[in-house]
Each structure stands twice: as C-alpha cells, then as structure tokens.
Design a protein that fits this description.
The complex is a heterodimer of chains A (382) and B (246).
Chain A (H helix, E strand, L loop, with lengths): L9 H18 L10 H4 L4 H24 L1 H36 L18 H9 L10 H21 L1 H18 L16 H19 L5 H30 L8 H4 L9 H17 L13 H8 L1 H21 L4 H30 L14
Helix pairs in contact in A: 1-3, 1-12, 1-13, 3-4, 3-6, 3-8, 4-6, 4-13, 6-7, 6-8, 7-8, 9-11, 12-14, 13-14
Chain B lengths: L4 H11 L27 H8 L4 E7 L1 H4 L10 H12 L5 E7 L5 H6 L1 H4 L7 E5 L2 H6 L3 H17 L3 E5 L5 H6 L3 H13 L3 E3 L1 H10 L10 H26 L2
Parallel strand pairs in B: 1-2, 1-3, 3-4, 4-5
The chains are: A mainly alpha (382), B alpha/beta (246).
Chain lengths: 382, 246
C-alpha cells in the first residue's frame, strides 16, 4: 500500500495501461496475441483490472477534491467525468450502427438471414437509439462503458459513505454481490429478454472494493502486516488458478493435455463476476501490492512510460482500442487472417494506442504549463 | 479461450496451409483432413445399420436447417443428407426429418424437443444451433446450460447426437462475435463426448477457396448457389456419420 503522497502511484497507471492493451487484443476474435493475455492464464481478464483500478483511482482523485473543495464540487467533477464517458459511449454506438447497417444493407445473402438479425434494431432505430442513450442497448464490445458510467453516476454517494465509514459501503456491496450469486439477479436490457452484459449488481463490488482501498491509500492507511500475512495464501490461490486455467488453454491447443476440473468449473460466468474470477483477482491484487512497490524502478523506465501514459489517458485510449479492434476484426475477416496480417493489425493498433496516450499527455502538459515553460511530467487525469 | 479441437483446426489453418485435402472427395466439396477428424462413435445408429432396420434421423435447427434459402425443402441440407446416406447404405431405409425453425435460440429449440424430436423416436439427432444465441448475445453460461439441458434430454432417451455449429461468411463474421459461442458449443461437445460438426471452419475453408462466393451473384442464381452449399455440407456430414458407425 502506498504512503500518502502528492506523487501519483504509477502502478495504477501502468497496470491500467496494460489492461487497455489487453482489452484491445481480446476484443479481436481469434487474435493469436490473446494466448498471451491475462484471460489465457487467469480466470479473470483485463476487465477486472480496468474496473478495479477505475474504482481505486476514482476514490483517490475525487476523495482529494472532496477534502479540498467540498462535496458539491466533488460531485460536479464526478458527474462531469460520467458525462465524458457517456459521450464516448454514444460515439462508439454511432460507429457500431454504421458498421452493422453497412454490412446488413450491402450483403443480402439468403443463407444468412438469421445472422443478419444482428441488424434487427435497424427496423426500429428510434427505439434502438433511445435504448442506447438509456444504456440499455449494449451491442458487442459496447458493454463495459455502461457499467463504468453507472458506477460514476452513483459515485458521489459512494464517496460520502466511504469517507464516513468504508465498512458501511463495503458490507452492503458484498451482500448485493452474494445475492446476485445466490439468486441470479440481473438487470434487464434491450432487446427484450437480454440483460446487462456486465451485471452492475455483481461488478459494483469490484469497483467499490477498489474505491475503498483507494480511499485507504489516500489516507495512508495500510496494514503491512495483514498484507504480508495474506501473501502466502494469495500466492497459493493464484498458483492453483493459473495451473488450472493454463491447463484449459493448453488442452485447447494440444488435446493430449488434460483440462483440469473442466467439467466442474467451465464455463466460468463473467456476466455475474463469478467468485472463480474474483478470488484469483484479489489474490493478484495482494501480490502486486506486496511485491511491486509504488517506487519500483521499472515503473519509471522508458519502456514502461508509454503504458503508464496510456493508463493515465484511459478513456481516450479505451475508445480508440474499441474502434481499432472493430476495424481489425473487419480486416482479418474480409482480407486475410494470416500471421502477417495479424502482426500488422496488432502492431499498428497497439502502436496507435501508445502514441495516443503520449500525445494526449503532451497536449495536456502544454495546456497546463504557463506560456513558455512546458512541463514534461505528463497529464494526470483520473 | 476454452479448450476444444476447433482451436487446433483454426491454428493449423492459420499457421500453415491446409495439411492435405481429402482426395476421396471428387464432389467438389473437398475439405482439409484436419476438419474431417471424428473420434466419437454413434453406437445406436451403428447397431441399426448392422441389422438393416429402418433408421429415422431428426435434423433440428434454425434457418439453415429449414433451408428456405435454397428454394425447396428437398434442397435443404437434411434432405441432401438423406440422399447421401441412402447412397452410402443402400440396403437400409433412412429417413431424415427436417425440424428447422428460423430464429430460435438454443433454449427455444430445447422447448420443442418433446414434439419435434422425441415424438419421432429417432436413432440419431443432428442438432444445429448457436447462431441466434450469438446474434442475440445470450450469456455464454445460459447458452451452455441450455445446450447441456437439451443434450441430457436426448441422452436420457438413448439417442445418438451430433451437434452442428454456425455457418460462416466473412461478412457476418466481421460484425458478429462467433468465437466465444463456437468455443462454448465445442467445449460442451467435448465434455459430453459428442461430435460437433465443424460447419463454421469448413465453410470458412470454402470461403477462402472462393467457393460459394455470393458477391455479385444475381438474385435468381443465389438460391442455386445456396442449394449447392447445403448439398456440400450434407455430403461432408454424411462422411462423418459413415466414419462414426464403422
């Protein structure tokens, strides 16, 4: 756990940057690189990292603003952030409509009538658009932003409770999470019959856990002894999880390798954030908190710098990643899915994401600096 | 990623050119050997065929089972399968019933099992599913649960089962994420020792060979091309069935 300090905890930026790159990679179906992302070795994937760190940084950043300028100002800031996320969601939705309606109208093959029902919403665009604006229409890959937006809308209230008594938020949050696991609660979405991809009633627990830890970190509360005591348990949990999950990946590649506990555990529920995903994730958090120090040298290295900047400009880089993965998917489907094309799509896209992080950081620094004295420290958004 | 043989086939197709194309397919529907592997047996069907008793097969599925795109019921894949099997087993009366209904999820298909499948007392059930689930974004574990429930119903009746995965077109593949649904379907098949006919991978191979290319084909010729595609699917499926009863 970091000490209270004015300097940014670069671990948050670095790991969120890595998560953004992984989300891009995993969003392209059959991407060879996805054999090397978290989802191939752990039961959880980059979505958990993203939501957890988002909760953590939100508590850190807005907690400070709450202390300095009061609840009203902090609320306004948080909702401004929610608004930015909302605008990004609408932007991505417009791109999605363009992509699907183009395919649906130019491709009329009688063999694929069922498949083309993916464009059904075009029959009633007025409903689809309204449902998208209400966050109820969540087509593929447009599913994590609605969760994030909802969390930010509720965050002012969460923040006040955390500041009063973290437990007063954490306990109800955990109870709701458990209720989802037991009673299979879900939030309805559009079209009728579907539900939110990331069930907010389950995933809120991860976001709030992050926020509570973020608030503790901002106050300098740390239980080094507790963390140290948890390390062996966490290591054991994670080791088992990795061995089991890796056996599944390997048995998919080489049938001779047995998939351990496949019958019992597969498929692992992502929508409701199954404990099989959550527990190994928390184990990872403990290990990272203990072994990766906030002042670790590699976080300041030139190699890590582009990822840190990506993590700091997470909204822009995330949106770019979603657009690039949709584009990459089309190129791999329509042109070629050979290794050379995969390398080109991944290389160009990841390069663009890293460059965008750098560019925005530079721009924000220029913007902030007094005329004539540009700082190179990079912007530090939420 | 979840484990399944498909990953092997996909990787093999990605990394290298196909290892070899079946020389015994002079019908113009050849596929690489790795897409023809079947290591599951169909014991009930095999017993029927050995004793020359009549065989009923139910083909349950969606629009591509109903086969309206080809223009006539006897051009849909189940009718073509019946024809191909009749040629393979001339001394057995084989009937393939078409129970394709468009626009149904796996769950909705399972709900019509009693009337459409079980009432016909088939020896083999060929179950084509997954498309609508992928299109509608049904949650993967709900999809897996519906599949498992349906399979358990059929197993209880001691029917042999073959699963058939989705159709491939590079246009639709670009806007629908089939990957996770394919993985789930193949994963369930593997856990239950049920053969999953890799229609998606086969059609993708054909697409890469520029077969059944509908781009620029006039409307009246599309039905004929669709009928040809269904016929090819039926022939490869008949091959798989033949190998599974040996």
């Amino acid at each position: 756990m970091p000490k209270p300090s004015k300097t940014r905890d670069l671990r948050l930026d670095f790991f969120r940057g890595v998560a953004l790159i992984f989300i891009f990679i995993d969003h392209i179906p059959e991407n060879l690189l996805s054999y090397f992302t978290l989802q191939a070795v752990g039961f959880y994937d980059a979505a958990e990292v993203f939501i957890f760190i988002s909760g953590f940084t939100a508590a850190l950043v807005y907690g400070r603003r709450l202390a300095a300028k009061g609840a009203l100002y902090a609320t306004a800031q948080i909702w401004r952030r929610a608004w930015q996320l909302y605008v990004a969601h609408v932007f991505l939705f417009v791109i999605f409509i363009g992509e699907v309606s183009y395919t649906a109208t130019t491709f009329n093959n009688p063999m694929y009538t069922e498949e083309m029902r993916v464009a059904d919403f075009l029959a009633e665009p007025y409903v689809a658009v309204v449902k998208a604006l209400l966050l109820e229409f969540q087509p593929t890959f447009l599913d994590i932003l609605p969760l994030y937006i909802l969390m930010m809308l509720l965050f002012p209230a969460m923040l006040l409770v955390i500041n009063w008594r973290p437990v007063a938020l954490l306990v109800p949050s955990l109870m709701l999470y458990v209720a989802v696991q037991v009673f299979d609660l879900s939030l309805p979405a559009y079209p009728p019959g579907s539900t939110w991809y990331f069930n907010p009633m389950a995933w809120q627990f991860l976001f709030i856990s992050g926020a509570v830890l973020g608030q503790m970190a901002s106050r300098g509360v740390a239980w080094p002894r507790l963390v140290r005591a948890a390390v062996p348990v966490a290591a054991a949990v994670l080791a088992v999880a990795v061995v089991v999950r890796l056996s599944w990946t390997l048995s998919g590649l080489w049938p001779a390798v047995p998939g351990l506990f496949l019958k019992e555990l597969w498929p692992v529920n992502k929508n409701d954030l199954s404990p099989i995903r959550l527990v190994p994730f928390f184990a990872t958090v403990v290990l990272v908190a203990y072994y990766v120090r906030p002042d670790a040298r590699f976080l300041r290295s030139a190699a890590a710098r582009p990822l840190v900047l990506c993590g700091q400009q997470s909204l822009e880089v995330f949106c770019l990643g979603v657009v690039l993965s949709a584009l990459g998917h089309i190129i791999l489907s329509e042109v070629s899915r050979g290794v050379a094309m995969q390398a080109a799509v991944n290389g160009v896209s990841i390069g663009a994401m890293l460059l965008t992080g750098k560019m925005i950081a530079w721009y924000k620094a220029m913007d902030r600096a007094p005329a004539g004295a540009a700082s190179s420290s990079g912007g530090a958004g939420e | 990623m979840t484990p399944h043989l498909l990953a092997v086939a996909m990787l093999a197709a990605l990394v290298a050119a196909p290892l070899g194309v079946d020389a015994a397919a002079p019908d113009g529907c050849a596929v690489p050997v790795e897409l023809q592997q079947i290591d599951v047996k169909l014991p009930h069907l095999a017993a029927r065929l050995r004793t020359h008793r009549p065989v009923t097969i139910v083909a349950i599925g969606g629009a591509s089972t109903a086969g309206a795109a080809a223009g006539a019921p006897d051009l849909a894949y189940p009718a073509r399968l019946q024809k191909a099997l009749a040629a393979d087993f001339p001394d057995v009366a084989i009937t393939v019933l078409n129970r394709g209904v468009a626009r149904q999820t796996t769950q909705q298909m399972v709900e019509r099992f009693p009337r459409d499948v079980i009432a016909n007392a088939p020896v083999l059930v060929v179950w084509e599913t997954g498309t609508v689930d992928a299109v509608r974004g049904i949650h993967l574990d709900d999809f897996a649960a519906a599949l498992q429930y349906g399979i358990d119903l059929l197993k209880k009746k001691a029917f042999d089962i073959i699963l058939v995965d989705m159709q491939y077109s590079h246009h639709t593949a670009a806007v629908i994420d089939f990957e996770h649904y394919l993985e789930t379907l193949h994963g369930v098949g593997e856990l239950d020792d049920i053969y999953v006919f890799p229609r998606f991978a086969i059609m993708r191979y054909w697409s890469e060979q520029n077969m059944f290319n509908f781009d620029g084909v006039s409307a009246d010729k599309r039905a004929r091309l669709a009928a040809r595609a269904y016929d090819c699917i039926a022939r490869r499926l008949a091959d798989a069935i033949q190998r599974a009863v040996q």
